[in-house]
Amino acid sequence: MTETLPQRFLLEATPAEVAALLPAIGRAMVGISGGGTTHERIGVIEAAPCTVATLRIEGALHDAELALSRVVRVIGDRSSTMRGKSYPRFEFKDAADTTLLSVIAMDGPELYDEAVRAHIGAELEALPRPDLPPTEQPPEADAGNAALEALRDSGGQVEIRFGEAGASQAWRGLIEEVKGVMGYANIIRPDFHLHLRGGSVAGFRREAAGLVALDAAGAATGLVLRPLDAAAEAALARFG
């Protein structure tokens, strides 16, 4: 008889021990969120080495880093489903119970369940699933949406980097389409998703790293756009 695993549970493992499980779950979405931005890379995790200070998630389609000093626990969650398919995940949490970085198994629960089975600790209460806003709600026009559309129109190559609370990752490539759905400007590619909430970027400040997105109070949101060729540079010239 197959053991039924809990829907949400504490992992009895250190963050480094959880990191060692990640290459076993197949194709994965690594996500970081904050300040109106969600940045997600999608692909096979080839390695997840840890130093004393840093967890790295590596692969042809992954380059995330997480400061281990911020992580106090890792939660496993098997409750998420979409169109009848299960998407179990790991949540690396800080002392305030904020998810610093999430890793979602994209190929179903079998490999995930096998990886976590020996590390399941206390069962936790499953989180309520939030109601989604209307699917056709367009994003509020702002500098972030305008910059993404300018990059799309330019045909230029760009690096889109996001960092929040000790976690960071980047994607590099060509923006082929920007979709306005559910109040967000969205880039949806097989290897990368960006969800940028309308109204969350009031402007940009040019720094050595690229164009740093700013909120209405002038604080950096964690999103950075760095042009990689002349076309992208020209497209972003008016933003900062």
Structural features, described:
The protein has 240 residues and is mainly beta. The chain has two domains: 8-123, HemS/ChuS/ChuX like domains (Heme iron utilization protein-like fold), CATH 3.40.1570.10; 143-239, Heme iron utilization protein-like fold. Helices cover 14% and strands 44% of the residues. The protein contains four helices and 19 strands. The protein has helices at residues 15-21, 109-116, 143-154, 230-236, and strands at residues 8-11, 27-34, 37-44, 54-59, 62-67, 73-77, 81-82, 85-86, 89-93, 99-105, 120-123, 157-164, 167-174, 179-181, 184-189, 192-197, 203-207, 210-214, 220-227. The protein has a ten-stranded antiparallel beta sheet with strand order 11-1-6-9-10-2-3-16-15-14. Strand 18 (210-214) and strand 19 (220-227) form a beta hairpin. Helix 3 runs antiparallel to helix 4. The radius of gyration is 18 Å and the shape is elongated. It starts with 7 loop residues before the first strand and ends with a helix.
